[in-house]
Amino acid sequence: MEVGRHRPAGTGPAKRRLARGSYCIVLAVLILTGCRQDMHNQPRYKPLAESDFFADLRSARPPVEGTVARGQLHDDTYFYTGKFGNNPGDYMPFPVTIDVLSRGRERFNIYCAPCHSRVGDGNGMIVQRGFRAPPSYHTERLRKAPLGYFFDVMTNGFGAMPEYATQVPARDRWYIVAYIRALQLSQGATMSALPPGEKVPSTPPVFRGEPGSGATLPELQPGAPKGGAE
Ligand code: HEC
C-alpha cells in the first residue's frame, strides 16, 4: 500500500463536516433524553424505605383491613383450626376413606415418625439419638383426646415440638389425625376385635443376643417364625 500519498483518514473537509454533524446528533440526543427524564426517573420508594408522607413513616402499606389473598379465605374455621372457639372438636371435617388413611400413614411416617415412631409410642429415631421423648399416643389421656386436639398440636406446636402448619397443609394434617386414631385403635386392639377367621399375621421374632444396629439385619433364632407382615 502507498500509505504516504494519502491523507490520514478523517482529516479532509468532507470528513470534518461529517464529524461536526455527528457531534450535533450526539448533542441533540443528549438534550432530548434530558427532556424525558420525568418519565424515565419516576418518584418511587426503595423497598421498605422510610416515608414522611404517612403518619407511621412506612412506605410499604399494610393491606386494607379485611383483605383476603387469593386462595387464603379460611372461612371454614374448624377445618383450619380443629376448634370451636377455644375447644377442640371431635369429628373429621370430611369422611374418612381408605385413601385418607393411606395418605395419612405416608404423611405421618414422613413428618411425625422420626420422633413419635411408626407405631406412635414416642420412641422415634431422633429420640433414640437424644431428642426429648414425646408421650406415647397410647396413653389413656391421648386415646381420649378429641381429634381436633391432634390437629391443633400439629398446627401450633406443643412445648418442645415445633408446629407443622408450614410444612404440612391443613388437609394433610387431617389425614394424619385420622391415621393417628387408626394407630391408637390398632395398638390397643385385643384378639376379640379381630374379624372371625382373621389371624394375627405373625408372632414377634426372637433375637439371638442383641438386636441388629439398624444397618445390619437382626439374627433370628434358628427355626423361629419370620417377623413382619410383609
Ligand atoms: C422433632 C420431633 C417431633 C416431631 C417430628 C413431631 N413431634 Fe409431636 N411431640 C414431640 C415432643 C418432644 C412432644 C412433647 C412436647 C412437650 O411435652 O414439650 C410432642 C408431643 C406431641 C403430641 C402430644 C401433645 C400432648 O398433649 O402431650 C402430639 C399429639 C404430637 N406430638 C403429634 C405430632 C404429630 C401429628 C407430628 C407430625 C406432624 C409430630 N407430633 C411430629 C416431638 C415431635
In words, what does this structure look like?
The structure is a single chain. The chain is mainly alpha-helical. It has a domain at 84-190: Cytochrome Bc1 Complex, Chain D, domain 2 (Orthogonal Bundle), CATH 1.10.760.10. Helix content is 38%, strand content 2%. The protein has 9 helices and 2 strands; from the N terminus they run αααββαααααα. The protein has helices at residues 13-35, 37-40, 77-81, 98-111, 113-116, 125-128, 140-144, 147-156, 170-187; strands spanning 83-84, 87-88. A two-stranded antiparallel ribbon has the order 1-2. The chain is elongated, with a radius of gyration of 36 Å. It starts with 12 loop residues before the first helix and ends in a 43-residue tail after the last helix. The mean pLDDT is 84. The protein binds heme C. The site of heme C has 20 residues, from helix 5 and helix 8.
Task: Summarize the structure in short.
This protein has about 230 residues and is mostly helical.
Topology:
Elements: H1 13-35, H2 37-40, H3 77-81, E1 83-84, E2 87-88, H4 98-111, H5 113-116, H6 125-128, H7 140-144, H8 147-156, H9 170-187
Antiparallel strand pairs: 1-2
Helix pairs in contact: 4-9, 8-9
The structure holds heme C.
Overall average pLDDT: 84
CATH topology of the domain at 84-190: Cytochrome Bc1 Complex, Chain D, domain 2
SSE sequence, one letter per element: HHHEEHHHHHH
Q: Main beta sheet: strand number and arrangement?
A: 2 strands, antiparallel
Q: What share of residues is helical?
A: 25-40%
- Rg from Cα: 36 Å
| Count of extended strands | 2
Low-confidence spans = none
Outline type: elongated
The CATH homologous superfamily of the domain at 84-190 is termed Cytochrome c-like domain
Strand order of the largest sheet: 1-2
**CATH class value of the domain at 84-190:** Mainly Alpha
- The N- to C-terminal Cα distance equals 91 Å
Hetero groups in this structure are: heme C
Question: What's the helix count?
Answer: 9
CATH architecture of the domain at 84-190: Orthogonal Bundle
